[in-house]
Amino acid sequence: MEQTFVMVKPDGVQRNVVGEIVSRFEKKGYTLAGAKLMTISNELAEKHYGEHKDKPFFGELVDFITSGPVFAMVWEGENVIASARQMMGATNPSDAAPGTIRGDFAVQVGMNIIHGSDSSESAEREIGLFFEKSELQSYTKTIGTWV
Ligand code: DAT
Ligand code: MG
Question: ipTM, 2 decimals?
Fold first, then answer.
């Protein structure tokens, strides 16, 4: 079953929307395979955001993502990678539609509350960066037949 990496960034933890975000994914019908509150090291931040290392905002991005605890998660379900991106909304919260997480909870692009993998390759890479295999659960929910 498809899996994606989703992370509530330090601004989302500080602003008390971890529960709300978990709730949206649960209510949608996805299954939580793993989750942890953690602080990202500089080394992990630079790996995770490696594709942006030449961008002018890279330094700020690394400083921000390491500035406080994040809530890292792996969510599982049909089409979850693309669907999580839709649930998050556009990168810049001012372009994110109301009803999306960024549209509802964020204002500026530098503090946009949530990360989600953008492809199956990114999902595999990011899950591997943040989680050990032993931290992920494989299980079925009896309600699954109704989702
Ligand atoms: P996304 O997080 O939607 O995948 P991205 O991969 O293009 O977006 O960028 C990663 C993060 O970098 C993004 O969530 C916020 C930050 N960022 C992107 N563009 C930015 C910009 N122009 N100025 C400041 N931060 C930016
Ligand atoms: Mg991205």
Answer: 0.98
For 111, the token pair is: 């503090």
Our CA angle for 129, 32, 40, nearest 5°, is 30
Tens digit of pLDDT for each residue in 71-92? Answer: 999 999 999 999 999 999 999 9
Alpha-carbon distance values, 113 to 102, 107, 110, 123, 133 (Å): 7, 9, 9, 18, 26
- Mark whether 48 is an active-site residue: no
Tell the residue number behind the tokens 């810049």, with chain if given: 92
Ligand 1 within 6 A of CB of 4: no
Model pTM greater than 0.95? Answer: yes
24 is in an annotated binding site: no
- For residue 115, give the ligand 1 atom closest to its CA: 2
pLDDT digits 0-9 by tens, 21-37: 999 999 999 999 999 99
Q: What is the DSSP string of 76-114?
A: ESTTHHHHHHHHH--SSTTTSPBTBHHHHH--SGGG-SE
The response to whether 125 counts as a known ligand-binding position is: no
3 state SS of 123: helix
The DSSP symbol for 15 reads T
